[in-house]
Amino acid sequence: MKITDIMTTDVETCAPEMSIQEIASKMLELDVGSIPISDGKRLLGIVTDRDIVIRGIASQISLDSPVSQILTSEMVTGTKDMSIEDAADLMAEHQIRRLPIVENDQLVGIVSLGDLAVRDQTDDNASLVLEEVSESEDTELH
């Protein structure tokens, strides 16, 4: 099964000049934990709720600052041609919960750990990824 079968395609993006406060409000409005950042043509990065807390608030960056100051620009991305298993392996290897799917530097979708869990209940892909990501978070807390 291909990743295109489970990825979310109507992904809302935000511009890099939007403020951290605007991004946080957008996350609340959309009920999401991350927002891809795009210049309208290509994917520049992604901002998570954790980025806002750790790189923004804890680092005393003004909430009026552009989100470009805290975004993750070195992203792991997937392609439309990859299988669900390959996506799960990539997410586990890099200990990430969200995998942007990119074609020609443009965001075409995103896959979350939740997407894997819902779609792949009979397989161990989601549990493997969750286990890997959880180990990473446990290590960060100690």
Automatic annotation (TrEMBL):
Q: Report the InterPro entries cross-referenced here.
A: CBS_dom, CBS_dom_sf, Diverse_CBS-Domain
Work out whether the entry's keyword set contains Ubl conjugation: no
Q: Where are the transmembrane segments?
A: none
Question: Does the UniProt entry include the keyword Cell inner membrane?
Answer: no
| Keywords from the named record | CBS domain
Q: Which domain of life is it from?
A: Bacteria
- Tell me, what's a Pfam family for it? CBS
Residues covered by the CBS domain: 7-65, 71-127
What PANTHER family does its record include? CBS DOMAIN-CONTAINING PROTEIN, CBS DOMAIN-CONTAINING PROTEIN CBSX3, MITOCHONDRIAL
Protein name stated in the entry = CBS domain-containing protein
